[in-house]
Amino acid sequence: xxxxxxxxxxxxxxxxxxxxxxxxxxxxxxxxxxQLLGRRxxxxxxxxxxxxxxxxxxxxxxxxxREARAVAQLSxxxxxxxxxxxxxxxxxxxxxxxxxxxxxxxxxxxHGPIGPEEVARIGIALLGALRAAHTAGVLxxxxxxxxxxxxxxxDRVVLTDFGxxxxxxxxxxxxTGSFVGSPEYTAPERMSxxxxxxxxxxxxxxxxxxxxxxxxxxxxxxxxGGILHAVVFAEIRTxxxxxxxxxxxxGLLERxxxxxxxxxxxxxxxxxxxxxxxxxxxxxSGYTPTRADLPRTAPLRPADARERSTRGVLVxxxxxxxxxxxxxxxxALLVNRDGDGGGGSPTSSAPRETTGPASGPTxxxxxxxxxSATSSPNATPSRSATRSSxxxxxxxxxxASDDRPSAPSGYRVAEDPEGFSLAVPDDFTxxxxxxxxxxxxxxxxxxxxxxxxxxxxxxxxxxxxRAAAKGPDTNPGYHDGRVTETMHAGNPAALWEFTWNGxxxxxxxxxxxxxCWEANGRLYDVWVSAPxxxxxxxxxxxxxxxxTFTAR
Length: 552
What we know:
This protein is of the alpha+beta class. The chain has three domains: 3-97, Phosphorylase Kinase, domain 1; 104-293, Transferase(Phosphotransferase), domain 1; 335-551, Mog1/PsbP, alpha/beta/alpha sandwich (Protein Transport Mog1p, Chain A), CATH 3.40.1000.10. It contains twelve helices and 20 strands. The strands form five sheets. The protein has a seven-stranded antiparallel sheet with strand order 13-14-15-19-18-17-16, sandwiched between helices. Strands 1-2-3-4-6-5 form a six-stranded antiparallel sheet, covered by helices on one side. β14 (436-440) and β15 (447-453) form a beta hairpin. α3 packs antiparallel against α4 and α4 packs across α6. The radius of gyration is 26 Å and the shape is globular. It starts with a strand and ends with a strand. Residues 1-6, 169-179 and 290-402 have low confidence and may be disordered. ATP binds at residue 44. Residues 15-274 form the Protein kinase domain. Its EC number is 2.7.11.1.
């Protein structure tokens, strides 16, 4: 139901805004009347951003108008018709056809899951719309149930809201480096901020089909960080209701865009289902099952872990961007790992941070079940060439002091009086706290912690699991924590990652990476904590610290 305004406004001398139909991140949609032609229309009013300079505002307005006009050239029965693009008071308005009916999101909220036959019909309609848009060089970039309209009889399915679409050859609506969209329906590759193609819209469609079938997105979590982690890292568990259309859903939710099910093949499978009641497997070239589609029966091997570790970079950049479109600071999206000050482990060997605050919003944990932190492709240096293979094979924690690794550019080797050395950024300062030693960035945004202790029952894995169990008691707002068994330099190790709310509202949400390993009769624990919006830097500091750590 629209909310009647106090009075009607007429824009561009022609369109009378009569009732507000809805509001989104990019604008307000009104029911209106085209007074010239005497027909009912929908008008989208683009919201002004008061944080932009006059020049930036003009640039955004120009891009909006250019892209809206490009989208207006699309002609397909399942794409909203754009009648006009106008300006009034230097504010852009998009005039569209009025669909007398609610959205797919409304339908699901009011009536629950939808049967597979109707979902297949909706899927075919949207695939047709996307194929038309993609052929014209337009990526929608915000496929979700709220942007799919159903007319009163439910016979017509209409894809709407191309407000953040990307048009080939044009600067995108959002400024370079920002990200907009709905995280639950955003493809993993888009989270990296890298150039993407039609495959990203198809991933979003796969998530939408799951939502329509089960009533809930497969990536819904209690926090933004949890959503991001689910999209990029976690095993994708399709709902039971998706079984009739499983080959299509799984094919569209393939994380590798090059192996993702194509639009033509997806449409063929859905039509076959409507005709026969069965969905055949995709053509050999269309889709190959991935590890994420299969039951997890054993821990990831190191090679698998490295593969997932590369996704950590995606998550970080992805997070940065995603929040911008959701009205949250871009930093909030990124994930880092917190175990140090904010999040150290509560047990004797894991860190518990007691230093000052940091800043930043929360995002989901990153490497999770990735391989040993030392093998992460995100590390600036690999293990130093000066580290001898004999030391690694013998299980020693590090080479002798005369074999200490060199520091990469921007770092220095800290020879700590507690009997270890490692590379830390040039501007980090030492701050011992009881059994723990911290190296802190200016303002304590980044906190690198080290602790050396005696071995404990259960080894590193037991230590980290006990710490994680106490996470909610030691780290306010603790969530998305996970402990993974791994190896470090040939020694048993465990990686703990989690996100938490920080010790104060001023500090903001943080993420922690914490690696614990046992070597030469000692238990070593190294962690980095940072605002969730600083995941790239934090992951690098963590990897460098682990790769260059030497016990003397």
